[in-house]
Here is the input.
Amino acid sequence: MKLTNVKLSLDEAQNFVANNHRHSEPLKRHKFSIGAVDVKDSCTLGFDVNSLLGIVTVDVPSSKWNVRRDHVEIRRLCTKGDKDVASFLLGKAKAACFAMGYKCVITYTKPHESGISLKASGFWMQKATFRKNQLTGKIVDGLVQWIAVDGMQPSQEDRDFTNETLKKLSA
Here is the structure.
């Protein structure tokens, strides 16, 4: 399968999230959204929304970062589970953000989500908080903050923190 990206309206992104996301509601606003489709399902005139394999939605940050005009947040990433779609969308969103002059892209995941697509797309963990069940030792709640900065690679300390935290979360 060869993927291509398509521009999406907020309604198209909201509908996809409503039908396919495991735990999040559709967003009420966005700066932009990108969809992924197989090249064979697109044409010069557009695409059929039923052929969407995934979407990514970017908006102003939902956290304290929203006062920074050079920061944006990937607010939703949702796929139907096809191989490489998440990494493809993250890469396209990150490139679009940097091309528009944003310097920092942040996003959040739940501790049970692997984060492999984020790591493969050049993001690294900045912070991770999680709570374990005292009886079972299993992680029951938390939040992981990921970041990508224009023109910057993660330091060795950042890479080590990301790898060590991923090990803890997958244990």
User: Anything to note?
Assistant: The beta strands are 3-8, 32-38, 42-43, 46-47, 54-59, 71-79, 104-109, 124-132, 139-149. Helices lie at 10-20, 85-99, 116-120, 156-170.
